[in-house]
Every structure is written in structure tokens, then in C-alpha cells.
Amino acid sequence: MKQFLVIGLGNFGYHLAIRLYEKGHDVLALDKNSDLVQNIKDHVTQAIVADATDPKTISSLDLKDIDSAIVSIGSNLSNSILAVLNLQESGIRHIVAKAINDPHMRILEKLGVQEISFPEKDIAISTAERLHNPNLIDFLPFMEGYGIIELTVPDRFIGKSLREINLTNRYGVQIVAIKEMVPEKLHFIPKADFVLKNSDILILFGSDKGLGKMKTD
Amino acid sequence: MKQFLVIGLGNFGYHLAIRLYEKGHDVLALDKNSDLVQNIKDHVTQAIVADATDPKTISSLDLKDIDSAIVSIGSNLSNSILAVLNLQESGIRHIVAKAINDPHMRILEKLGVQEISFPEKDIAISTAERLHNPNLIDFLPFMEGYGIIELTVPDRFIGKSLREINLTNRYGVQIVAIKEMVPEKLHFIPKADFVLKNSDILILFGSDKGLGKMKTD
Ligand SMILES: Nc1ncnc2c1ncn2[C@@H]1O[C@H](COP(=O)(O)OP(=O)(O)OP(=O)(O)O)[C@@H](O)[C@H]1O
Ligand SMILES: Nc1ncnc2c1ncn2[C@@H]1O[C@H](COP(=O)(O)OP(=O)(O)OP(=O)(O)O)[C@@H](O)[C@H]1O
Questions:
Q1: CATH number of B3-117
Q2: Cβ(A100)–Cβ(A80) below 8 Å
Q3: How far off is chain B from A158, nearest CA to CA, in Å?
Q4: Which of A37, A60, A157, B138 has the fewest C-beta atoms lying within 10 Å of its C-beta?
């Protein structure tokens, strides 16, 4: 199980923190607003009232086992940026930051955070796509219990065609795409006669159970 | 081409409005903040400065050809709710509303809006899933040019098995799931021997072109 630090308990930080805790991870939740901290404390490992822009605050926390820190401070670019800088200075290797707007996103890219999230923009774009084409399904909600993963080609499949390995009928997973590496090319919905190479990367859709079985078999 | 009314030009409303306009639709963008209206006016059909909570404002607009109205007013539940009520009273049939928080979402459900969007919560949950399982792919971005649609079973496929109709190799689309209606049941990743009935609904993943061909053939 992993350890996460979540800074900023607005909608994004709150739902992220409680979900990670529900999945069995250690979650330290931090916000300067004591009501929000009080509200979340039974749903995470530990919740503290603190100002993430204060370097002393961040350096006083025991962060050596933190796998990832998520900064979801809204409304104020500089507060979010200061929090990110404090985390980087305390040696946190993996930072996810929520962007407040497009300029903020560019600054976060320059700071080298590992992942930038911009929920309002991404969902606005997929909502526009669905208003444009009402047949499109909003696939975010229907994917509970299912996922799409990347997997290197298992040894026993190298040199075989998709028809031969028959993944759908044997494992209940679908090969949605194959990423070829030399040259780099993404093949969506590969045909049955596609022969797998050891450098290929499979992009598989399936149930958590089916995908799990693919990874371990 | 359709007509859309977008109320509230924060990140969500802004990106939604310009995307719909880029896809060729008529977009009327409205906000009480004149800077935001000025900023967007070259990227939509028309942009106006107005207060969406004022019933006179909404009733003075020519809304009879509006296919859908999107309310993305943030920070204040009552402003968003008043805007929704004004739209409903002026006869708008399809409303998309962005939720500010969970209580707001429940109120929007009670008001009967056709679609509620809660980007921060949805993306927080999918981000948590990916932090929990780093193999999971963030499939929102990689889906450009591809989509998932629902389609009733074409007549010529009724009574045939998936093996016989061979969609992947013939149309370049994948049947990700089949929704059976009687009783209602969702089959993910159906096996090749599944025989299609006229009441089934296909859930297809494919390129815009492949899906388009499926719909018209
Ligand atoms: N310096 C800080 N230290 C700790 N927490 C902070 C600091 N500055 C702001 N916050 C907290 O960040 C949280 C998120 O900020 P805010 O609600 O403005 O963002 P938001 O982007 O609108 O949130 P969301 O979209 O996730 O609902 C708030 O709960 C706020 O108290
Ligand atoms: N009564 C109103 N009439 C028209 N526009 C309004 C009204 N009230 C608020 N707005 C506008 O709604 C927009 C969105 O509000 P705000 O930026 O607070 O929301 P937000 O949820 O944080 O936005 P986002 O998450 O999309 O960035 C603002 O540009 C604001 O000017």
C-alpha cells in the first residue's frame, strides 16, 4: 500500500483523498481551513490544518515515504506554485497538480510537476464532443470495475497473431490498440492477423480481474 | 448544425463554448463579466454581457432554436439555480449544469436538469484510480478521433453471432459491451459466440470514420 499527501481539500482534493483511502492507501490530508480538515478526518489516515505555502510546515512533515503528493489549491496561482516548490524542495519525487487556468498550467509544466490535471477543461471538451455527437457515450462513469492498461507483450505471445492468442475469449480482455515502438506508431483496433513482436506494447481493456490475470499469468 | 447557449465563461464554460464553435455549431456565450465576454467574442458566434439570474434577461433572448443550454456559473449555488430556473421557464428543453459541490448536485437533480457535470469529482476519482493502479491509462486524452457510441443492432446482424459478423476485421470497430434489454444487463467484452437479438444495444469503440460507417451502412 502506498502513501499519499493531499494538499487542498476543495472538491478535487476531497474526493481524491477519500477515494485513495477507500482503496487501502495511507492518506495525509492538509488544508488551511479547519472546517474542511474536520470534515475529512474520519475518511483519511490523518488530516492536519496547515499552510502549505510555509516552507517550515512542509519540512516539518515526515515525507520520506510519500509516493505521491497532490496539490489542489484553487483560486490563487501563487499559493499553488509555492506549495509545489516547497514539496520539490523537500524531495517529493512525484507531484500531481491541479491547474487553475491555462497560464497556471504552463507554469506547472515549467516547474516540471509529473502530472497536471485540468478537470474543467478536459470535461468541457468531452462534454462538447458529446453535445456534437449525442451517440457518444460518456465513458468515464461506465468504466467502474473496468480499465485500460498498458502491458508489454507476454513472452508466450511473441510471434503469434491476435487470432491465435484469442484474448477476448480466453481472458475476457480486448486489445484496444497496440503501440509499436520501432518506429513509434499506435494501431487502434488491430486486425486478427496482426503478429505480436517483443517490442510491442498492448493497450488492453478489461475487467480489473481479467486485466489482473493477464499481468500475472 | 446546432445552436447552443453557454452561460458562465469560467474554465468550463469557456472551453466548452469555443470547442462547440470549432465543431461548426452556433454558440451564444453569456457572462456578467465583460472582460470574459470580450475575451471570447471572436471564438463564438455571439457573446453578450448579461446577468443570467435576471428573468428579463433570459426572456429577452431569442431562444426558440436553442438545442441545449449549458449553465456553468460557479462559486454561488443560488445564482446557478436561478439561471437554471429562468432557462426552464423560457422553455429550454435540454439543460446541462455544472455542479459546484455535492449538495448543489442534489438540487440540480431535483430541478430535473438533463445532465449534471461535476468535473472536479469525476477527474479526482479517475486520478485516484490511476494513482492506485499506475498501469491504468488516462483514456480521456488518447481518445481524440475515436469514440464509444451506442447503436441498435442493424437488421442484417440480427440472429448472427459476433464471430459471423466479424466487426473488427470488417469495420475496424470493437464491441466493447452489449446492453441487453430484457432483462436489462450489460455484458462487457462479449465472447465470439454471442448471438445478437433485435432488442440488444451495441456499445462500439472505433474511429469516428469506422463508427460513421456502422451507422449508415
Ligand atoms: N496555502 C494553503 N495551504 C493549505 N491549503 C490551502 C492554501 N491555500 C488554499 N488552500 C485550500 O485549497 C483548497 C482548494 O481551494 P479552492 O476551493 O479555492 O479551489 P478549487 O480549485 O475551487 O477547488 P475544487 O475545484 O477542487 O473544488 C481550499 O480548501 C483552501 O482552503
Ligand atoms: N448571474 C450571473 N450571470 C452571468 N454570469 C455569471 C453570473 N454569476 C456568475 N457568472 C459567471 O460565471 C462564471 C463562472 O463562475 P466561476 O468562475 O466562479 O466558476 P467556476 O466553477 O470556478 O468556473 P470553472 O470551474 O469553470 O473555471 C464567471 O465568469 C462569472 O462571471
A1: 3.40.50.720
A2: yes
A3: 21
A4: A60
